[in-house]
Structure formats: C-alpha cells, structure tokens
C-alpha cells in the first residue's frame, strides 16, 4: 500500500518518533480537547541533539490530526483507524478513483508509486490458468488448520530451503500462512509486544509497517535514522550500522520506552540495499545482546536482478545467534508479480510464537483454492528457474537500466542498487528551502497534475528531497514519463529558481512519471 504521510512544517528530524505509553484513548482525548482536532498541530518536538529533558515523544509523526473530526458512530479505535486512513491514503485513493488507462482513461493518474511488478503479467496469467491449478476438492472448501493446509506448509518449507540456501531442510511445522505480509507484521507485533511498547526499525522504510503495527496492537516504532553522509564506520549512503541501532535503542530506553523487537528489511525498501552476511550477523548479535526479537522481511529476495549482487537469507546462515527470537517473512506479491493474491508466510522455530500467531490466522486466513494454487506454483521449480526468474530478472534489469540512464543524462543523483522495483533518487538540490513542507507542496502539485508520487518523508527519511521511483513497468510508460515529466520539472534547476509559494502555481502539464 502506498503511504503518503502529511508533513510538519519543520525540516528537522526527531531522534525517536513514538509515544511513551500513549494509547488510543489518550490520542482521542487530545483530539477532543482541541475541539475535534481543528487546528491541532503535528507534534514533532523531539529533535536531534536536544537534551533528553527537552524532548517530547508522541504519535503524531504517524499522522496529522489537523482538521480531523471524531465520529460519534465510531469507537476510540475506530476513530484512530479513520484518522490513519485519512492522512495516509489520500494519493492512493485518488489514484484508484482516476486510474490511467491508455484507451479508457488516457487523462487519468499515472502510478509509478506503488511497489508492484507490472512486467510479468503474461507469464503469471499463463501459469496460473494451466490445468493443474484448477482443483476443487472438499478439503479446500472446508476450514483448514489455521496455520495453513499442511500440503502448502510442506511446499513452502521445501521452497524456502532451496531458495534461501538453508544448511538443513526447513520444517513445515515452523511455517505459518497468512493473507499477506502486512497481516504478518500486525500479528507478530500483537504477540511480541504489549500495547505502548515499541519495535526498532531503520529509516527510511516502507511506511505501511507503521499502520500494521499500530492499528491492531497499539505498538509503536523507534527510528534509527540513517542519512546520506558517509562518516565513521559507514562505507555507503544510508548504511545501517550497529552503532546507529545502539544509539536509537539507548535513546528510547532512557525515556522508559520498552523496545521488544527489531525489524530488518532485506532487500531494503526503499533503498534497494542487500545486507552482507557479516552485516546480518552483526545485526542479529546486537539483537541477542539486548534480548530483542528480530523480524526479517525478505519479500524481495528473488527480485535481485543483477548477477553481480548476492542475496543472503537469514535462513541460509549456518548458525542463528538467537533462533528462538528470529522470525522470517516472505510472500509472493513482489517476487511473483501478483500483489493482488494475498499470501504471506512466516518461518519461526519458536512454537510459542507460532501458536500465538496462528490464533490470529482466523482473521487473516488464505482460502483453500488459493492455497492449492500457491502450492502448485512453488513446487514448479523448473518453470520458476528456467522460465520465470530468467525473464523477470532480464525485464527488471532492462527497466532499471533505462530509468537510471535517463537520470544520469539529466544529472539527477541516485543510489544504484540491484534489488527490488525502485531507485532512491536525490532531488535535494532542486528544493529551494530544503524542508519537508516543500516536499509536500510539490507532491500535492504533482497529484493535481495526474501524477501519483510520494516523497521521502513517506518513508520517514531524515533528509528532505529524496524520492523513490518505481521502474518495474512497461517500457512505453517509462518512456512517456521521462519524456514529459523529468525534463520539465528538473532541468534548469527550476525548483531553485522559484520561491516556495510558487510551487502551488506550477503550470498544469500532464505528468507521466511518478515517484513513491
């Protein structure tokens, strides 16, 4: 899900962005106390370098309650969910109401923002409609084991053993199946943390995780802010180091925030980074020292499209520092270009965690016929290796090359990575004042011009001016986007030449390249 967050008026970034013991009732009380939310300011009051005694932690980094009116028809939790939806899905809702279509709606909104692979519909539609997929037996129409049908869990275990290069066969009893990795984040947060406790994550990160953790379990996030500067032990921009994790954890604990887990995204979204084996080991050892659970999201593991890059799965490590606190997630939405089929899987050796998550599978189950189709897909190793992955990697690489070559021609800096569907690009020099407010003004203007994008703050980036381009789309749309959008808005350093208020008066030219 595309996450577009409302911005504050400050370009500064807080060092910890979460509430201390804040719950739903407290949030609604704050809103009600301000007259239903009218004029309520976003409270980003904790800034890097300020003394702890002057810092304030709160949940408004997640959403902006300004102009929010609580509903008498909803519970406290319902009002919070409504507030989240209003502040995080504005662009996404606009897109679905006015989708671009070459024939039916040529003036609609172009979406290069949502992280979907649109390059392999031909391959997947053909495979998913073959005769072996069309099975309808009584067990598929009845209630399954809530962890998933055993035939599917066995197939997932074999699949992960092979593609994660596990040193020993993985066990089906450690596999749980849910309807997507978003549900897995929600379930894990609920069973690993109590309300008001927190999970540690490095920024920038996929913003949908915030909602997954907070809306169900009232679990917060502690941010380890990464930046583009290469200093100290860093060797690349936005590099995650143990020192940065240690600082974020200690800052949170100094304010009595209970941190229970660490989230790792590998390959990383939106950066495209792939963690080395030594980095993974360092992160896991850090978590073990502090008795933190580690939730490892490897949903892009088969979307490493360049042979020069090597992906290392946590499940492929010879030894896990703390296997009872290490939990690995994967799903088919990205690697198999079927985000509309909701399927995610968890692998954990901790049976207490497995059973607790399974108790929530009643709300997040995968229907029997879909479980059969997924099992058939995952067991077709020859087709995956000889047909699908070869074609998918070639198409991803070609699209990535096209977009990055155009960025080079235009002189736009970016991180050159080889995984995922996105390029992390640097527009900072084109922002006149270098604030997140300017990012949001530009984002809204692009949406007015039928371009769906999201600025770096949607991923809690600490530096204004970074954007994520989705390149996993058809060549003709990439060409249209680069041709009509980038030269107009980027060349001549146009944003530097115009004062901030004029961003609201940019010419209305149909834009065709979107950032998320």
TrEMBL record:
Q: What does this protein do?
A: Does not catalyze the synthesis of 1-aminocyclopropane-1-carboxylate but is capable of catalyzing the deamination of L-vinylglycine.
**Name of one Pfam family that matches:** Aminotran_1_2
Do the record's keywords include Zinc? no
Organism of this sequence: Chelydra serpentina
Residue stretches making up the Aminotransferase class I/classII large domain: 110-475
Top-level taxonomic group? Eukaryota
Task: State what protein this is by name.
Answer: 1-aminocyclopropane-1-carboxylate synthase-like protein 1
| Keyword set, alphabetical order | Pyridoxal phosphate
Q: Which GO terms describe its biological process?
A: amino acid metabolic process
> Mind telling me which InterPro entries this protein's record contains?
Aminotransferase_I/II_large, Ethylene_sulfur-biosynth, PyrdxlP-dep_Trfase, PyrdxlP-dep_Trfase_major, PyrdxlP-dep_Trfase_small
Q: Is Amino-acid biosynthesis one of the keywords?
A: no
GO MF annotation: an example: transaminase activity
């Amino acid at each position: 899900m595309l996450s577009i967050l409302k911005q504050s008026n400050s370009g500064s970034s807080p060092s910890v962005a979460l509430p201390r013991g804040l719950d739903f009732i407290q949030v609604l009380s704050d809103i009600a106390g301000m007259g239903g939310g009218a004029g309520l300011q976003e409270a980003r009051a904790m800034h890097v370098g300020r003394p702890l005694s002057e810092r304030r932690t709160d949940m408004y980094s997640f959403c902006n309650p300004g102009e929010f009116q609580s509903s008498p028809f909803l519970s406290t939790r319902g009002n919070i969910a409504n507030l989240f939806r209003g502040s995080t899905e504005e662009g996404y809702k606009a897109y679905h109401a006015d989708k671009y279509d070459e024939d039916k709606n040529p003036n609609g909104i172009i979406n290069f923002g949502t992280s979907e692979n649109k390059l392999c519909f031909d391959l997947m539609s053909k495979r998913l409609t073959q005769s072996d997929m069309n099975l309808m037996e009584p067990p598929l129409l009845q209630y399954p084991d809530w962890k998933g049908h055993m035939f599917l869990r066995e197939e997932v275990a074999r699949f992960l053993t092979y593609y994660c290069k596990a040193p020993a066969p993985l066990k089906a009893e450690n596999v749980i199946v849910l309807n997507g990795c978003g549900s897995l984040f929600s379930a894990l947060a609920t069973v690993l943390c109590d309300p008001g406790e927190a999970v540690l994550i490095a920024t920038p990160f996929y913003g949908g995780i915030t909602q997954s953790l907070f809306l169900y379990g009232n679990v917060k996030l502690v941010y380890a802010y990464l930046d583009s500067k290469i200093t100290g032990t860093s060797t690349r921009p936005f590099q995650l180091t143990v020192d940065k994790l240690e600082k974020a954890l200690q800052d949170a604990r100094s304010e009595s925030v209970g941190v229970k887990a660490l989230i790792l995204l590998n390959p990383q979204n939106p950066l495209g980074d792939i963690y080395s084996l030594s980095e993974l080991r360092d992160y896991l050892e850090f978590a073990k020292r502090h008795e933190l659970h580690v939730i490892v999201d490897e949903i892009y593991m088969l979307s490493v499209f360049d042979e020069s890059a090597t992906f290392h799965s946590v499940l492929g490590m010879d030894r896990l520092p703390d296997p009872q606190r290490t939990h690995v997630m994967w799903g088919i939405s990205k690697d198999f270009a079927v985000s509309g089929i909701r399927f995610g899987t968890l692998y954990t050796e901790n049976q207490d965690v497995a059973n607790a998550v399974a108790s929530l599978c009643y709300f997040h189950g995968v229907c029997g016929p879909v479980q059969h189709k997924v099992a058939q897909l995952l067991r077709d190793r020859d087709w995956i290796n000889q047909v699908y992955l070869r074609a998918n990697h070639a198409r991803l690489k070609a699209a990535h090359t096209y977009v990055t070559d155009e960025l080079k021609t235009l002189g736009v800096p970016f991180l050159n990575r080889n995984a995922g569907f996105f390029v992390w690009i640097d527009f900072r020099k084109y922002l006149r004042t270098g604030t997140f407010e300017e990012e949001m003004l530009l984002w809204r203007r692009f949406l007015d011009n039928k371009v769906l994008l999201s600025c770096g703050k949607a991923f809690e980036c600490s530096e204004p001016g970074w954007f994520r381009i989705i390149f996993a789309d058809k060549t003709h749309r990439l060409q249209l986007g680069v041709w009509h959008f980038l030269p107009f808005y980027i060349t001549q350093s146009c944003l530097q030449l115009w004062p901030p208020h004029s961003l609201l008066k940019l010419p209305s030219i149909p834009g065709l390249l979107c950032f998320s």
